[in-house]
Queue: 3 jobs
Job 1
Amino acid sequence: MTTRRNFMALAGSAGLSAGFGQTAWSQSTIDGWPSRAVRVISPTATGGPGQNFRLYADNLKNTFGQSFVLENMPGASGSIGCMTVARSEADGHTLLLASNSHIVLAPLVISGSPVNVKRDFDPIALMFTFPFLLVVNPDLGVKTLDEFVAYAKARPGQLNWGSPGVGTGGHLVTELLLKKTGIKGQHVPYPGTTQQLLAAAAGTLQFTFDTPGNSKGLRDSGKVLALAVTGDKRSNTAPEVPTFKELGYDGFDDLRVANGLLAPKGTSPKLIQAFNAEIVKMNSSGAVHDTLVGASYEPGVMSPQDYGAMIDRELEQWGAIVRETGVQIKS
């Protein structure tokens, strides 16, 4: 079983080993790209699932001959990082590594959001997906989801819950839980998933949604307790945790976080296709694939066109959840 500590060790070895034996685009450029280091901007704080890009970076350098540098740029529910990329030259040297929280959910929730994924970006590749995991501080004394719901309903408005920002997946999936159970609590947004998870372990938050992989270390040490997971199956890194569906709570089966790579609108399709081919190759088999799966991520193997179609479906799906929960934030 992959732990948080040895996951980072595996990540380093995966990044090195993935580069061997690559020949398809080896040390070549695509219409002159890349001619310098490529900035890959993640619109969230350091830590959390976005750091998995480092698994791919060494292999991409070996393939295309330039460094791919991950840069965290949090703020304004992801819009600062997203718009930095959107306003960049469409030459492939500034790319966006974003979750559906940043490119789908936040623009649906925040009125006046400057981000428009269809207008601003061309999809490159789906990197990976993963479910939401509901965790609580163990001092609550609850052991099951039903016990937690009863505990929270007996203390309306007294419990704090967190998210990695207004309009993110963690925000909306919690609002959906509140709507379906009648729980009332206080929302405390954080700049990233790691920060909110640590707050739950410290007792600043009483409950929050995180990911199976990111929370494993704190779960194993008893600092947080997992009660339920979204999706249609249990997580392989938390097989003891039932799905919401198993526990009789509908509406959580298709909810997941999706991290993908996007380029400014108008980027060369030839460049996008070459980049996509490398991501799909790494995600299909080998060290990167195995490391992701071992940490409860599902690697993406979609074409750019299929990833774009997935974004369209998520706009519809999460739009329905926004309407159901009534969440709307004025910018």
Job 2
Amino acid sequence: MKQKLGTASYSNIYTEALNMMMDVIKKELKLFGISYDNWFFESSLLAEDQISEAIARLDACGVLYEKDGARWFRSTDFGDEKDRVLVRSNRQTTYFAADIAYHLDKYQKGYDLIVNIWGADHHGYVARLRAAVSALGLDADKLHVVLVQFVNLYEGGQKTAMSTRGGQFIPLSAIRKQIGSDAMHLFYMMRKYTQHIDFDVELAKSQSNDNPLYYLQYAHARICSVFRQMEEQGYDYSVDTAELGNLDEAEARALMKSLLRYSSILSLAAETREPQVLLEYLRELATDFHSYYNRYRFLVEDEGLRCARLVLAAAVRCILFNGLTMLGASAPERM
């Protein structure tokens, strides 16, 4: 096609098509609540000759050799299972050479931490990339590769067959339109990224306790309803008049213990980069609140006890709101 159209025409069509595709991708990601600060194009590596620069730097380190007309990287010296080709016998560089240049660019920008998010099928690629980073004299400990397992999509109780090779897939936009961004965010975080996820569309749309989004949002809305009822019944709410010593019920103590765990849970989720830790905590907190709510009345005549229970409810509402927000979901006041 390039020969038929000519270099200039082909380049114009290519650029226009690329821009159209990127506009669609960016628009959909924005609707999903995702925004990237920077988009990196592999073509920039070629335009700026960064691939040749990376290969030359490896050569200067004495880790390349010639074999069968190709240039090889002696990656086995750095823990890889076999050596890797960087330049084929036809003088074309490999994808691996481009990946090395890309990561060299990242290191040259001075980042303290470099995180790659890959599909689990790329697990065999980790060793060779870390080998290249080490061979370049860079700190391989700065590079963290997160291997994410696949998601199985279920609709109507049936697993949906998808294949990238066969062109069979369901776009993100189609699922988002069915269940909304809130549900998608939480369902993707129901399990650790190293585990397979069975994404049940019907469950995501259901109003049941098994749906984590509904369960958490309902707990938040329930607390908001209590405070609306307080105003409707003409009660005042003051932290100063709350007699917290009256919160001696077993359910209240369990709820307060759950609240005290929030800070450590946030730290753990951030340090391990595992948001499902926060999601699971919020579900436990909501369970503790529902248990307390179902057994005790909040709007009692005793002002000190009433305000104490409302203080406890307000604390739970605050954490549910903050937690849902951090997980990319909304916290409605009415449901």
Job 3
Amino acid sequence: MEIEMRKIFNAFLPASLLLAFLAMFLFSCGGGGGGSSTPAADLTGLSMNGPSSMSEFGTATYAATASWSDNSTSTVTPTWSVNSQPATISPGGVLYCPSIASDLTVTVTATYSSGGVTETAAMDVTITNITTIPFTAQMVSGEAFFEENFPAGGGYVSDLDIFNADFSFVNYTYENPPDTSDVDTGTWSIDASGNLILTIAGQGTFTVMLLADSSTEMQILVDDGTGTPSTLILEKTVPVDSSKLPGTYLAQNGESWTFNANGTGSTTGAGGFTFTWSVDSGILKIIFNTGYVGWWYARASSQSTATTYTALNVAFVELTPTGDFFQYVGGRDLTRQ
């Protein structure tokens, strides 16, 4: 009988169907493993962890852990919610809160379901109000501010922001890589809350809040209305003192700059140039022999004695012979030789 059945299988069943039939037969008879499969564990609990406090305009990230009936635990992705506006939480558990008038306590809740069982976990989070300093027009009108960053992955980024007395605004930027610079224009104003409002062509409106102010720098919070605001440190600029300038300086990129007392000078930069120089409204203006013009804004980190600069740190804008923007090269740190 066994031989006849084998003949029937071989004659009428393709190999793939034969294998499937044998697998079903072994499973129904308890074969293939010597026992039944282990049932899935049931969800028995949910816990969450993350910061219990954060500041407005900041973020905090939360995670959830499920407990199972087999005494195991695992990280899960729950449904997140927060019970109070204007705080919001993303599907990934990142809590964010924009401007608030006073400290706010919210409840963050995680909900997770598995196998028909639903568990929740909750945590109270205190969001603290940031005390800001009101801007005044005198703080920014006619002033320029410098910023530079050296990203962790390498490179260099710099900005020069100029607030003109007529409420126009100019922003010069430089980034390397890719070694490019640009200029953007707009307007500035101060709202009833003392926030600085920047409207930049092609970019939109930015709200700037002042967190700290000293004689050399400002710490600000910039909100573009689309995401988490950025905290920046702006270095103030100061008028160039022409009487302290004459001498030879070495820049951090190896360029040598010589300023003669008679208003002439030379540099080894870009193959070497001669120039004339003068100080106009506190800005050092350099006219190269090619007709190009450099504007140097001295930064508050510059150092000097009563008679000479020992370190002249500047932001460097270059214009074409016709006065159009040519390039912004970021910061130059010059040390007297």
